[in-house]
């Protein structure tokens, strides 16, 4: 049975350059081969079944000849039953062979595509965040779904159809030549004559079907957008307008579909006419030969059988050929995606985790005290090479102490957090953890020591348990509840419709900003990191929420090395050190009182904070 090792992105031949021009069918096969290779045995069995059924189908022609000559036109009932018996045996063998072929080939298509999807997804989650800034998520999703489905069709159906048709064509041709040379030549000339117009016409119909599919996709995305923005639509009372606009989209789709249906109906009519015309021609010539006694009626019947078989084999091959062209596009896009290099090296620990090895010891060994330092760090975002987001920045955060970052919007505060987590590496200078460059650490070892509480905490469409355990999946229920209590989240969680089993996320329970932050804080408390990266919510929380969040944060920050993008005065006042940033540079650092006296920028920012705090209190 199949080898269980599924290929990974690294199995792809490096010679496949991402910029390669449109792939040829052979290079497509070469690109996909690593995914098919583990299932060689299935492939061989499927090929055997295919050859077997093709052989049986071809021998049915001989059965037909026997049936006509001995059974139908002869006068022995025994010969008739004998001929029917042979046909039945052939039919049973064909059914068995077809079952095996169909099952194995479809299995192979599904299996290969499942592996391909996994390889693409596994690769995507290791990619650099900036990749997702330049590539739309919808496009990446469609590669995972639409492109892979197309390949499944090719591997699972079309390819075996083409192979079968090729075998049939050659087999039928040989049998024809043996039976009657004159009629065979007629077929050889007739098949292309009949197929050419059908193929050309078929291409037009296919183009229209693609247009039709596209316009249906437009209808879908139009409806999707309206549903997503339904509140805006209703509050601006645009329902009628949207109905009309949608109706317009639907009518366009109908118009395209109508043209396609008309062409397709015409194509069917043409096919019928041409096929019957060609067969009638054969019967006319062959029938004359039969009357003249040069061939038997069975020969003629077998002849027509093989001629039709050849015609449909050629038709199938031309159909598959155009599908293959669509599939090369899909393969190319998938291979390009698999070839995108992760700029930050993929973690060895993460790779061995996927391979099921024990990695806890490596990760745990890195825990302990955490002293952080930025040493003359200069960093440009890849999309902004001319403007540094951080410039010659040097800062120390002693183990267990807190550093508050303040500064106007765009000063570089979030960039510092990104660099600490190694979403990017600085172009010059270095960031150290306990004296060693974080570039020398495995990303999993580095990130496992950190917990991040972002401004807009990400909640997954799952229950509270799952969301809180995200950073520590093996935490017990008691540990989760203790973390929620420490984060002042337990009470409101209990009040949710299903308590800890309530579903959150997109369509889940609606949580306030403060509640979301407290869930994120609980998640961080549960992870129990040595380094804490906090981005305080900028939107004003109500006094009670603010109080809860502040107390939760105090619990969380205790004895941990903390870097916090501070928007609240209380946080700033309690920080061990405050760094004032402006345009990517460190302009001042110290405690609150020192800075009020020494830094005009800080003084201004602090005054704004005071004013806001006072307004909120009054
Ligand atoms: N992904 C990105 N690609 C290119 N430039 C970016 C990217 N993210 C941020 N920048 C730029 O880098 C600079 C620093 O941005 P950063 O987000 O670190 O500022 P910030 O101090 O966190 O601001 P805010 O308080 O508004 O969040 C800004 O000029 C910003 O436009």
TrEMBL record:
<dbReference type="GO" id="GO:0090374">
    <property type="term" value="P:oligopeptide export from mitochondrion"/>
</dbReference>
<feature type="transmembrane region" description="Helical">
    <location>
        <begin position="266"/>
        <end position="288"/>
    </location>
</feature>
<protein>
    <submittedName>
        <fullName>ABC transporter ATP-binding protein</fullName>
    </submittedName>
</protein>
<dbReference type="GO" id="GO:0015421">
    <property type="term" value="F:ABC-type oligopeptide transporter activity"/>
</dbReference>
<feature type="transmembrane region" description="Helical">
    <location>
        <begin position="41"/>
        <end position="60"/>
    </location>
</feature>
<dbReference type="InterPro" id="IPR003439">
    <property type="entry name" value="ABC_transporter-like_ATP-bd"/>
</dbReference>
<keyword id="KW-0547">Nucleotide-binding</keyword>
<dbReference type="Pfam" id="PF00005">
    <property type="entry name" value="ABC_tran"/>
</dbReference>
<feature type="transmembrane region" description="Helical">
    <location>
        <begin position="80"/>
        <end position="99"/>
    </location>
</feature>
<dbReference type="Pfam" id="PF00664">
    <property type="entry name" value="ABC_membrane"/>
</dbReference>
<keyword id="KW-0472">Membrane</keyword>
<keyword id="KW-1133">Transmembrane helix</keyword>
<dbReference type="InterPro" id="IPR011527">
    <property type="entry name" value="ABC1_TM_dom"/>
</dbReference>
<dbReference type="GO" id="GO:0005524">
    <property type="term" value="F:ATP binding"/>
</dbReference>
<feature type="region of interest" description="Disordered">
    <location>
        <begin position="1"/>
        <end position="20"/>
    </location>
</feature>
<dbReference type="InterPro" id="IPR039421">
    <property type="entry name" value="Type_1_exporter"/>
</dbReference>
<dbReference type="InterPro" id="IPR011918">
    <property type="entry name" value="ABC_MsbA_ATP-bd"/>
</dbReference>
<feature type="domain" description="ABC transmembrane type-1">
    <location>
        <begin position="46"/>
        <end position="326"/>
    </location>
</feature>
<dbReference type="GO" id="GO:0005886">
    <property type="term" value="C:plasma membrane"/>
</dbReference>
<feature type="domain" description="ABC transporter">
    <location>
        <begin position="372"/>
        <end position="608"/>
    </location>
</feature>
<keyword id="KW-0812">Transmembrane</keyword>
<dbReference type="InterPro" id="IPR027417">
    <property type="entry name" value="P-loop_NTPase"/>
</dbReference>
<keyword id="KW-0067">ATP-binding</keyword>
<dbReference type="InterPro" id="IPR017871">
    <property type="entry name" value="ABC_transporter-like_CS"/>
</dbReference>
<feature type="transmembrane region" description="Helical">
    <location>
        <begin position="185"/>
        <end position="202"/>
    </location>
</feature>
<dbReference type="InterPro" id="IPR003593">
    <property type="entry name" value="AAA+_ATPase"/>
</dbReference>
<dbReference type="GO" id="GO:0016887">
    <property type="term" value="F:ATP hydrolysis activity"/>
</dbReference>
<feature type="transmembrane region" description="Helical">
    <location>
        <begin position="300"/>
        <end position="321"/>
    </location>
</feature>
<feature type="transmembrane region" description="Helical">
    <location>
        <begin position="161"/>
        <end position="179"/>
    </location>
</feature>
<dbReference type="InterPro" id="IPR036640">
    <property type="entry name" value="ABC1_TM_sf"/>
</dbReference>
